[in-house]
Design goal:
The protein has 122 residues and is α+β, with helices and mostly antiparallel strands. It has three helices and four strands. The protein has helices at residues 31-43, 48-71, 113-121, and strands at 2-3, 14-28, 76-88, 91-103. A four-stranded mixed β-sheet has the order 1-3-4-2. Strand 3 (76-88) and strand 4 form a beta hairpin. It is elongated.
């Protein structure tokens, strides 16, 4: 599965736009990590326990987004983004989302479908 943050895939044409695909995960803080984080807040520095937790959550949300796109019949995702929001005090949602698309066969003209239609009308 090709995943891009851009709206196009360089050198490939988008044959069909399927629609939005997404994957999310909600993670709650762990009391043990909170104790370590509290100590780090006193002395300063990165809270590695939370960094690791959020990285794992992003990866899980990303994987779920890819599986959703595959279930829709897509072979690529464009415009991929992450968002994070607070669900409750101590819990956050990580959402990965983008547009599921089907790519034209390799070697096809690398133009957006609307651009092709416009060019044939001229």
């Amino acid at each position: 599965m090709i995943v891009a943050t851009t709206e196009t895939i360089q050198g490939r044409a988008i044959a069909e736009t399927i629609g939005i695909c997404r994957g999310n995960v909600i993670r709650a803080r762990h009391v043990g990590n909170d104790i370590v984080a509290g100590l780090r807040n006193i002395v300063g520095g990165e809270v590695n326990e939370y960094t690791k937790m959020m990285a794992e959550a992003r990866e899980q949300a990303y994987d779920r987004m890819v599986k959703h796109a595959e279930s829709l019949g897509a072979d690529a995702i464009v415009g991929m983004r992450f968002t994070t929001s607070t669900v409750t005090q101590g819990a956050a949602e990580i959402l990965a989302f983008g547009t599921a698309v089907k790519l034209a066969p390799a070697g096809a003209a690398a133009q957006a479908p609307d651009a092709q239609a416009f060019m044939t009308k001229a």
